[in-house]
Design goal:
Shape of chain A: globular
Strand content of chain B: 5-15%
Number of strands of chain B: 15
Helix content of chain B: 40-55%
Structural class of chain B: alpha/beta
Strand order of the largest sheet of chain B: 11-10-9-12-13
Number of helices of chain A: 18
Oligomer: heterodimer
Number of strands of chain A: 14
Radius of gyration of chain B: 28 Å
CATH architecture of the largest domain in chain A: 3-Layer(aba) Sandwich
Shape of chain B: elongated
Structural class of chain A: alpha/beta
CATH superfamily of the largest domain in chain B: Nitrogenase molybdenum iron protein domain
CATH superfamily of the largest domain in chain A: Nitrogenase molybdenum iron protein domain
Largest sheet of chain A: 6 strands, parallel
Number of helices of chain B: 20
Number of domains of chain A: 3
Distance between the termini of chain B: 54 Å
Strand content of chain A: 15-25%
Strand order of the largest sheet of chain A: 1-12-11-10-13-14
CATH class of the largest domain in chain A: Alpha Beta
Amino acid sequence: MMDGAHGSHGCRDAPLLKERGQREVFCGLTAIVWLHRKMQDSFFLVVGSRTCAHLLQSAAGVMIFAEPRFGTAILEETDLAGMADAQAELDREVEKLLSRRSDIRRLFLVGSCPSEVIKLDLEKAAERLNAQFADVNVVNFSGSGIETTFTEGEDACLAAIIPGLPKTDARQLVVAGALPDVVHDQMLGLLEGLGIGPVTVLPTSKADDPAAIGPGTVFALTQPFLNETHAALVRRGARHIAAPFPFGEEGTTAWLRAIADEFGVSDDRFDAVTAAPRDRARRAVAQASAPLANRSVFFFPDSQLEIPLARFLTRECGMTALEIGQPYVQREIVGPDMALIGEGPVFSEGQDVDLQLDRAREARADLTVCGLGLANPLEAEGLTTKWAIELVFTPIHFYEQAGDLAGLFARPLRRRAILEGGASSGGIEPPSDARGLCHAGGAEVEA
Amino acid sequence: MKLSVWTYEGPPHVGAMRVATAMKGLHYVLHAPQGDTYADLLFTMIERRDRRPPVTYTTFQARDLGADTANLFKTACHDAVERFDPQAIIVGASCTAELIQDDPGGMAETMGLDIPVIPLELPSYQRKENFGADEALFQIVRTLAKPIARTERITCNLIGPTALGFRHRDDITELTGLLMEMGVGVNVVAPYDATPADIARLGAAHFNVLMYPETGEAACRWMERELGQPFTKVVPIGVGATRDFLREVAEMTGLAPQIDETRLRLPWYSASVDSTYLTGKRVFLFGDGTHVAAAARIARDEMGFEVVGLGCYNREQARMIRALAKDYGVEALITDDYLEVEARIEALAPEMILGTQMERHIGKRLGIPCAVISAPVHVQDFPARYSPQMGIEGANVIFDTWVHPLVMGLEEHLLHMFREDFEFHDDAGASHHSGVGGGSAPASVPEAPRDISGSMETGTVIWLADAETELKRVPFFVRGKARRNTEAYAAERGVSEISVDTLYEAKAHFAR
């Protein structure tokens, strides 16, 4: 099934280039942007600064809701003076919020860099508020940039929920990771087809939906950034089913196969359920990935999806990976994906963005996967880029999205080819003093 | 502690970034944790800048706290100077670094760098983005600008345009042309595209043009005091303000005020009969103080709107805006709470909002047309075409921009004829937009001109031949509505055949 991986560990034990320096990544607060959509009766209250509020607004890109289910309690000069004061202020803001929003069943108090630095105890606050509000479950976690990188915000959130879940001894499958609804439903359909159940998905969309954990629980992850969630589930007695992540035909099949083996599903049944979608996925990937064949890819660290995606691009789309950067590498979780990646790429962990940019410029990959802060500058230098954040916001898991996933990477290459074809009639030199006309957006090249 | 859902301004260090990013040859070393780099994307994505903002973030982590954050800063500062070779650096702290009190300014000064080091003290828990920009520019000017000989010809500096500013890029071009026509040269534009060396030449100008008080006033006041340069008080947005501005420049320089108004179209467009429908349109204004004040004057005096409310989010301009509101007989709204603005708009129910990106969303929700007049801005507020707010072309752009969300005069009179039609009612929005209609969803269903030849039978109602011919005479863009209204009218009265009379009976009925 996993051709080419037989008899080898691929890059499972590959050395890591560890870097320490400026990081061009979001902090964990950003996860609130998708988590609040997923958990529809929850409110995420960041206790932080104006910077936190500005980050959430900028990362969300557009404001869709008049009053979204997240907000920032902005610390002010007076809060920084004394701790007791800040706790009382927080109580007041929470009271105001909950009286206005009676639809809220769960309140997340989300720690930030400033609240961590002044050691504002949000756990204590959550305990106090839980006692005060009987019908609201108050949970705290940290999304601060000094502790979490981008998608680790979701990890911290899920890990914070798990200790409070009821205990069960029943045999069950828990699948952890927030997925878009369409993907979530496809996954449940596949598992049901295989006769696997009962299945519980974390996070549940409603705070009081039954989710219980215990020694009879086995769990699979759909996102590679759930390290703390993994640990929290193991602490509750659950057992992890390690597998490559369900991206592309191969990843999805391997992920399902690992779970099917755990539940003793026969090969016949497995094939009966997966044959048609596998075939569809293969055809869709073949069609969408044509522009990717024999091209090279360079990953800047961003969402932790980099290793599984590099596996998909190298094994199913015919690409060559030059560097695969991740914010951090947990081999226990991404090891199965690393094992499938052929030798060659540099695996880097952490970031010193200026040094990494030097390497990216040197490598001049056909496609550079990076964050929004770097994409346009690199495009202007002639590199073709794919913004990484889209990979977090778009449905990309499982069979039916495999073609879309290849398409996300292929589109920038197709676009560049179109534009280069269309604009190749050659530029006309502007007169050297046409300042006003050349002024656009700082786009001038320095003399 | 104050709960905030959407913010009009970022933190003050983002304001300083707007100054640094606008400049060349300057680097900003910012003591900040991982995550604060999100601000880069404001510039690279919203403004589509093709270079990274010149900012180095120290990126300290939890494990560094209490250990070695100071050394981390020194290393980052050293590396940045070596790599980017700037003419000067500004150094400062973001909100979190302010709490750990490493004193980046003090540290940088002891590093023996051979370029000017400009420390910024930006109180993150008290002030906001505009203050950060104003203060950063002021500190840069104060450090680098020295009294020097004036230029021989009369010149000025343009002060205040920054990165991520609302139309700053094009306002510079427009003002430069306007001043040139009067015989005034531009010595330095700052901070936009200025190098630290340019900042050192500021003193050569005879006066300063304060383009945006939000981001340039502190620098102008300092230069007035220390370099003896007066600065202009009128912001030339709108026809009247542009003329006043040139009179002010004339007084300052002794030159004769001159303006070439051959390109100016706003006054005629506003006077032409199609614009009759603009008369007394009830508008609500919100944004930064400077743009709101300018827009209020244009709205009332140049467009003939009725200003039903106004306000600003930056408290620095609260006094000016309160006085202005008094002048307009309305109550000023001074707040940075988005929900308060929304509540005020809902209560006043204006026919149009002149606001920011935030009000655009309020307008969308409430079904009220909105034109953007001020930062905060989004990607669509950085158009590819030349579209200033200031000067002659600015006035033309403003006319077009403000009229665009509204229904054209030529079609508004037709509304009376078909007032109750489900897609052509008063709230339906303009025909050149889709889906901006208020409340009812059907407003967004576009009606293509329909071929009405052939069988005219619709349900039980039959169109007689002469009625059919008459219907063809109705302009195509309302023909569909005329047909449906007539059919509905006929059906209501149990009429099974539509004659010319029925058509006009229906028209009369709907033309109340």
